[in-house]
């Protein structure tokens, strides 16, 4: 499966410490395993990694990571 990251997702990952980066990236690479819920009111899915959330969508064989953020911030301005 091919994984593409948005500009915002890469920016958020770069700000995190190394252990958090590894934790988030390994959870993304393990998809479709994990705590995944289909979003309501918009397209896409949510992956929960502790206090972090990853919003992603699947288009064929391409997995698009749209947004990564903290639990309280990710849904604001959605």
What does this structure look like?
- A hairpin with a 2-residue loop joins strand 3 and strand 4 (52-59).
- The chain starts with a strand and ends in an 8-residue tail after the last strand.
- Strands 1-5-4-3-2 form a five-stranded mixed beta sheet.
- It contains two helices and five strands.
- The chain is globular, with a radius of gyration of 12 Å.
- It is α+β, with helices and mostly antiparallel strands and 78 residues long.
- The model has no long low-confidence stretch (mean pLDDT 92).
- The chain has one domain: YaeB-like fold (2-Layer Sandwich), CATH 3.30.2310.
Q: What characteristics describe this protein?
A:
78 residues; alpha+beta; YaeB-like fold; five-stranded mixed β-sheet; 2 helices
Write the layout of secondary structure elements.
Layout lengths: L1 E4 L1 H9 L2 H12 L5 E4 L6 E5 L2 E8 L2 E9 L8
Parallel strand pairs: 1-5
Antiparallel strand pairs: 2-3, 3-4, 4-5
The CATH homologous superfamily is termed RelE-like
- Average predicted local confidence, pLDDT: 92
Helix-strand topology string: EHHEEEE
The helix-and-strand class reads alpha+beta
Determine Rg (CA atoms, Å).
12 Å
User: What count of helical segments does DSSP give?
Assistant: 2
Ends apart, CA distance between termini: 26 Å
Largest sheet: 5 strands, mixed
Low-confidence parts, pLDDT < 50 over ≥5 residues? none
């Amino acid at each position: 499966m091919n994984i593409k990251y948005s500009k915002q997702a890469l920016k958020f990952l770069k700000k995190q410490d190394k252990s958090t980066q590894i934790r988030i990236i390994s959870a993304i690479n393990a998809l479709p395993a994990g705590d995944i819920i289909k979003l309501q009111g918009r397209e896409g899915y949510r992956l929960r990694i502790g206090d972090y959330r990853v919003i992603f969508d699947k288009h064929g064989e391409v997995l698009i990571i749209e947004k990564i953020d903290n639990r309280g911030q990710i849904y604001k301005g959605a």
